[in-house]
Amino acid sequence: MFCALLVAFTTACTTAHYPVNPKLVRIDLDAGYRASRVLATEPGDTLFMHLSLSGGGMRAAAFGFGVLEALRDTTIVWEGRPQRLIDQLDMLTAVSGGSILAGWYALRGVDGLADFEARFLNASLQQELEAAVLTPRGLWRIQSPRFGRGDLLAEHLDERLFEGATFADLTRRLRKPFVIIYASDMINGSRFEFVQDQFDFLCSDLNGVSLARAVAASSAVPMLLSPITLWNHSGGSPDCGDPPQRHEGTNAGTSDAAALRRAELESFRARDRQGLLRPYVHLLDGGLSDNVGARGPMEYVGRFGSVIEGTRAHGYRGVRHAVFIVVNAETSARAAGDQSPDVPGPLRTALALADIPINRNSALTLAHQRAMLLAWEGEVRAAHERGDFEVYAQGAHFHLVEVNLSDVPDPALRERLLSIPTTLQLPAADVEALRREGAAALGRSSAFRRLLIDLSSPAASR
């Protein structure tokens, strides 16, 4: 009898509804959470540093946490005074598990790192989330067509970590780094950024969106968590207007990537006689479109057709060093199933559907980033030969620092860390090993050591 009542209770029509992202009255480039506003807070900055955190659940968060600790504990002499390297961060991009750490850092800053360890790394988030789903209330709510497991994750992250914080909290106190949390568009697989410039295309006010909801969208692993849904308000009457064209260079839009990105954004405004073609936008795990978070800078520069013009557009002048640090916590490509002649089961096969394109896309993205940095260096050298030192100073350098779990020198430790599952909860010993290895991997990087030598040279910060 009890079972029959429970089934009837959980399958009854429910009215649970996810929060709807608010409308935007009108587009205002001087309002909202935008890179142009955050980066303008330090107009004389001549050291640009971009950090990207990959996906990978708590494994990625713990590994990235160790890297942030190492950056905090690394002191350089810049502009004539000792400074922590972490304080030179201009931009921080993240997906999936890395977005949990990035969202917290955006809200709390470097002084909040210790609290993140207690509130997330040492917590039982996954166990708590599973318990919340299995309560009568949880089971009832997820039967609603307007509420899913991803929405439960957003609520739990809000209670556990973000305490109701929205992007308005970031807008009220603009400070570097500018943090971009990525999700993936369920329809075309494109990167969706939780920044006001992206939300302009939806005529939606990002200030009214919770940080927890952005992180849940970035972490919405297919089949395990439901997508996060946004409403496209651009079909309203009157609407907020068309997103203004930025002052892009004369070569803007010449690359295929730039044209594709524009088409992806403009798809949100496309309509036919019945109205918008996409009145609702469904978002999945950011790792599906860019698990290492490295495509953003390349596509941004592609909009301007030149790294010089792209850098100029955000107000930078006399840049001496441009640093890109990629923290990659992806698991090993070696699967346990390859040690057995048995036919892989449905779960292993389903996981491969996500893992294979993610790992292949990440490898291609990183290869493309290495090539792009070489091309940007060539552009700057050509500008210097013409006597143009306005945006990039004479002798300016580009640095790419890759921090990978797969580079751990100890084979046994490497296999242990690479085999840690992509979950939201790990044993304390695994968390500590990942955290320690994040700091050690950064220190071992030859590119990072060269960066520190370059920054310490007498001419580096003059």
Report a brief summary of the structure.
By secondary structure, the protein is an alpha/beta fold. Helix content is 45%, strand content 15%.
Stretches where pLDDT is under 50 for at least 5 consecutive residues are 1-11, 246-253
Number of strands: 12
* Mean pLDDT score: 87
Main sheet makeup: 8 strands, mixed
Give the overall form: globular
Task: Estimate percent helicity.
Answer: 40-55%
Backbone CA Rg: 23 Å
Question: Please, could you describe this protein's structure?
Answer:
By secondary structure, this protein is of the alpha/beta class. The protein is globular, with a radius of gyration of 23 Å. It has helices at residues 2-11, 35-39, 57-72, 96-108, 113-121, 125-134, 136-141, 149-162, 167-172, 196-199, 211-218, 256-266, 287-290, 295-304, 307-313, 346-385, 411-418, 428-444, 446-456; strands at 47-53, 75-78, 81-84, 91-95, 178-185, 191-193, 228-231, 271-272, 275-276, 280-284, 319-328, 392-404. Helices cover 45% and strands 15% of the residues. The protein has 19 helices and 12 strands. Mean pLDDT is 87; it is low at 1-11 and 246-253.
Fold topology:
Layout: H1 2-11, H2 35-39, E1 47-53, H3 57-72, E2 75-78, E3 81-84, E4 91-95, H4 96-108, H5 113-121, H6 125-134, H7 136-141, H8 149-162, H9 167-172, E5 178-185, E6 191-193, H10 196-199, H11 211-218, E7 228-231, H12 256-266, E8 271-272, E9 275-276, E10 280-284, H13 287-290, H14 295-304, H15 307-313, E11 319-328, H16 346-385, E12 392-404, H17 411-418, H18 428-444, H19 446-456
Parallel strand pairs: 1-4, 1-11, 4-5, 11-12
Antiparallel strand pairs: 2-3, 5-6, 5-10, 7-10, 8-9
